Amino acid sequence: MGLRVYGVVLQVVACGLAGWQVWFFWDLVAREAWPVHRPCPVGELCGGDPLVDYTPFLGAGSMVLFVALSWRFLRRAAVPASVLLAAVAGLYGVERTGTSDASWSVLFAAVALGASLATWWCVATGLRRTAVVRRWSGRYRVADARVVGRRRRGPGGFGEGLAVFRDEAGVRHRVPVVVEKYALARHLVAVYDPARPADPRTTRVAAPRSPHPFDDAAAMSTEAAGEVRAS
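The structure corresponding to this sequence follows.
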């Protein structure tokens, strides 16, 4: 394996360790840090464990570390995923105590539900924007593309335009597509069916995750527009 593969493997391991740390601290928070399970008897002085008292802050710091390490893989889903992991760990810790107070269980369950919905929404949005499933499929091909003549369509930054690209045979195509505004400043690719490259029903424009956006998207769009007029 090359250095790049080793780097990815090490980062995955680091994400796993950070996730375990989030689970450990928030499970401990639910069981020990909040004095709702074993209140002090009346008339007795109860001392606390300083490490346990600071566990919520350690748990929050672990969540930040998990987000930083997993951002490469999860992107925007990293934030709700860290909240989901902490909430599930807290719910598990509360259930382990066997307490009859259901308020903490309800709180952790509600946070876990909201975080799970946010995580799935972020994952679905990322898959749609990058078309990673189609790009990895052997059925479709990928080609560099430009979007020209974009017109706004409805709310949310969506618009219609023409995707200009060349297929694997070198034939240029202009296919109507729907693309979000943010993608115009990024490296775009057309994901198409080689049997029907000009079919708008099977051709999509994706914005793969690239650390280097277009330096001059307007100039490239102008160049692509010239290609459209010349054809």
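The beta strands are 141-152, 158-166, 172-180, 188-192, 204-206.
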